[in-house]
Amino acid sequence: MRRRSKILAALAAVALPISVTGVSSGGPPPAVASVAGPASQAAAFKAASQQYGVPESVLLAVSYAETRWDDHQGAASTSGGYGPMHLTAGDPTTVTDLSGGKKLGKADSALTLYKASDLTGLDPVALRKDVTANIAGGAAVLASYQRTLGLPTGADTSAADWYGAISSYAGASDRAGASAFADDVYTILAQGAARTTNTGQQLVMPAEKVTPAKDQLARTSLPAAPATPKAATECPADLACESLPAPYQETTPGDYGNHDLANRPKTGKIDYIVIHDTEGGWQGTLNLVQDPTYVSWQYTMRSSDGHTWQHVAANDVAWHAGNWYVNMHSIGIEHEGFAAQGATWYTEALYRNSAKLVRYLAKKNNIPLDRAHILGHDQVPGTIPSTVAGMHWDPGPYWDWEHYFNLLGAPIYGFSVFPVKAGSLVTVKPDFASNVQVVTDCTGAGTTCAPQGTNFVYLRQSPDDAAPLVKDIGLRPNASASTTQVSDIGARAAAGSQYVVAERSGDWVAIWYLGAKAWFKSPRSAPDAFAKPGLVVKPKAGKTTVPVYGRAYPEEAAYPTGIPYQTVTPLQYTIGAGQAYPVSDVNIETDYYRAVTFAGAPPTDHVQVIGKDRYYQIWFGHRMAYVRAADVDLRLAY
Question: Within this chain, do residues 83 and 212 fall inside the same structural domain, yes or no?
């Protein structure tokens, strides 16, 4: 039964007009400071806490770990979860419409939406679509887990005593996954959180440091995690990670796949971590990486819970970036998802576990935690002019780089040391949640994508909202303007990217971008670009143009006998006299890793060729690029 007759009465019971600024007698400080009123999300958390006996801070931290307090407009997550408390209702590919009379199958205790319905008397439709009901349902479920474990409930109980219930709420299949979720919740609790939700609700959760009672995990019915030899994976200890090796084998005489053995960093430094999305489901992706005739990457991460598989050792070279130089110097991580669907797949569990893995890998390999080294696949340059148009654009406009770098512990720069003026070096930070740009063609040609936060600002040919977008001759050789198509990165300055200001006109800022001026609006009252000192490159005196490269390959004289010279070919872009571009790395290797035959073949194979010609990595357009040190001068910009 769906209990429709009980909806109004049950909702009235949880939507109480409770003040969000008072302090309960003898309790901790208030967990929420937000907009007042019974319809506010803050009031809903407080009311649910009181009614179901869950500490408000616990309720807030669990919700933040699940969804960052967003409701996702009633849409299901990849694991069939709804609303800010992520109440689960089963496979989202079959559970499509709770309001249209479609039955979802009998209630299951593992499906928390139905458990919440049984506990609260609320209809599953309300639990899915109404934020107040959803929060009440989550509180009821947490309280039921606490009682099942024989532990006390109450809004004034200590948050430390809810570890077991929080672990149960994770919906994990074993204790390792459950404890990883609970540990995340307590980390959030210790750090505090504040943000504006997708519905405009401003929520604040003050930090509350407690020592959780982790021994409660033993009270749950969850089995221990299956033993996985840690030596088989290169993952942090608090990440659910297992080994699923990609095959290194001959496929036909003279051919092999799907990666190369190496001995990095001796055969090339690891400078980058490349963030991909799979453009497919996790099982299909795992099948592909086990195909010796296909490509490879180091890790795959599942959307629903961030579970991770490692396929290729970090010291070997996977075939993932579409640019051999970047492959030589990078680790690739595939995240289950579709770039055009964004938040549907990019779950909080995915972001948090990905950040754990990247922090671990960056520390182990001395990789800077910045947007020049933690790259989106869409930042990887084409190798030569003919490959530029075919480069990938994932993880796309809906990957929240600002949140991701907060999780990495390296927030994207968001204040100006100096005024933003001509010559300034600026970092773009558009505030993902409120930055809802018009994007098209997500579901078909000519369609407008569903509004959601985006990670970029559009760049125009003149300081006017009606001006055409800038051109990218690599993507459109016919020199037509870029478009708003979801896959078109030609006129986008993404969060964390850096540029040099060419001109300022009122609220508009022009930057040097792909060899020309590109304009975006950045009002002083609400800026999208922030200035700080840094190094830039300018063409050497007397040079009218400077070539730009997609890889930093050695000069011809560096190649030993038996290894063919890899031609150093510039891209179709150039840097003009008077222009300047930010330097993102002055210490990259000029090299080529020769590995074109199966291991054990000629002794001249599997060799790192190192050149003497120096290159700098620069921010150039949406993608990174390289310039020869001999062509440019380094200057300080501020």
Answer: yes
